[in-house]
Amino acid sequence: xxxxxxxxxxxxxxxxxxxxxxxxxxxxxxxxxxxxxxxxxxxxxxxxxxxxxxxxxxxxxxxxxxxxxxxxxxxxxxxxxxxxxxxxxxxxxxxxxxxxxxxxxxxxxxxxxxxxxxxxxxxxxxxxxxxxxxxxxxxxxxxxxxxxxxxxxxxxxxxxxxxxxxxxxxxxxxxxxxxxxxxxxxxxxxxxxxxxxxxxxxxxxxxxxxxxxxxxxxxxxxxxxxxxxxxxxxxxxxxxxxxxxxxxxxxxxxxxxxxxxxxxxxxxxx
Length: 270
Ligand SMILES: Nc1ncnc2c1ncn2[C@@H]1O[C@H](COP(=O)(O)OP(=O)(O)OP(=O)(O)O)[C@@H](O)[C@H]1O
Description:
The protein has 270 residues and is of the alpha/beta class. It has helices spanning 67-74, 102-105, 112-122, 128-141, 147-150, 160-173, 190-207, 218-224, 242-247, 252-263; strands at 18-21, 27-38, 41-52, 56-60, 82-91, 95-98, 178-182, 210-215, 227-232, 235-241. The strands form 2 sheets. A 6-stranded mixed beta sheet has the order 6-7-8-4-9-10, sandwiched between helices. It has a 4-stranded mixed beta sheet with strand order 1-5-2-3, with helices on one face.
C-alpha cells in the first residue's frame, strides 16, 4: 500500500532519538537537527527543514545523498536497521506518501478501485457505497478517464502515468494535509512526467495541500517547488527560493547539479 498517514498528536516511530512536536506556526513541517544512522554510521547529518503550510518544498540531490531516508523518517518508515538518532520533527496535520514506482506501490492482485475504497473505509470510516462513490470522485480529480469503468481495472491494465494517478488517488483518499512525494515521476517518460507534475501542482493549489517533493533532478523540482533544499552526502548544503538557487547557485555541488540539467539536449515537442 502506498499510503501512510498519522495524526500529529500521536507519537510516530521516528526512532529512539527523535522528539515529535507540532510544527512552527504557519508551517506543516519543522525539522531540526535530524540525524539518521545505521550500524555502519551516520547517513543523514543534522538536517533542518522548514515547510510552510500550502507550499511546495523540494529536496534534491544525487542518488545516495539521503533524500529518501529524510522523507521516510518523517512518516516513521525507515528501513530495518536504520533509525533517527537525534533531532526534532514538528508536524501539523496528516502526512501521506507517494513513492517512486507505481507498480510496487499498488497491489497487483487487487483492482485499483478496491485499493482506493479500502483506504476510504479503513482510514475515513466510510460505508462501502460511500467509499465507492468517493473513489469515482478521486479518480475524476486525478484525471483518470472513464473513472467508473476504471475502478474494476488491475494495475497492469493501466499505463504508467495512469498508475501514478491511481497512487495519488490512494494517497488522497485519506485526506492528507501534506503529501510527501519520493521521486513520483522518475519511472515515467518525459511527457507523462510533465502531466503528473502539473497534477501535483493542481492538487496543491486546489486542495491547499502542502507538498514535499524529492528528486535527483533539479529541473523537475524547479517545476513544482518554490523553495529547494540541495542535499549532498547526508547534509543540506544549500537552501533557498528555487529561482535564486537555479539562477545564482552558491554551493559548488548545486552548480554540478545544474550543469547536469543543462547538458540534457532539448527535445522538440510534437
Ligand atoms: N537500509 C539501509 N541500510 C543501510 N544504509 C542504507 C539503507 N538505506 C539507505 N542507506 C544508505 O543511506 C544513504 C542515503 O540513502 P537514501 O536512499 O536516503 O538516498 P537517496 O538520496 O534517496 O538516493 P536514491 O534516490 O537512490 O534513493 C546511502 O548511502 C544509502 O546507501
